[in-house]
Design goal:
With about 90 residues, the protein is mostly helical. It has 5 helices and 2 strands, in the order E-H-E-H-H-H-H. The protein has 2 domains: about 45 residues, no CATH class; about 45 residues, no CATH class.
Amino acid sequence: MRRSKHLCADAGYTGAPALCVIEQHGYIPHVKGRGQGAAELKHDPSKRAGRWVVEVAHSWFNRFRKLLVRYEKLERSFLVLNHLAIAIIVLRTN
């Protein structure tokens, strides 16, 4: 049994061409326009405001200046620092 694939996107993907591409790739689009999330929150205040997972991850990684600027020349050094940052993020969130 194949699970359906869902794609959550922001207001930049509300146009017909973008929705067509999303559906051609077999995704079920969940696209919210500007202010739509805030309007839903007003109707049902018990719902928490959601933040995109990718934005949160980028925010966490941006706290590590050495990764943000990328001083490392070697790819393996940069990869090790990314793994270290991930470990620190996981330890902080638990």
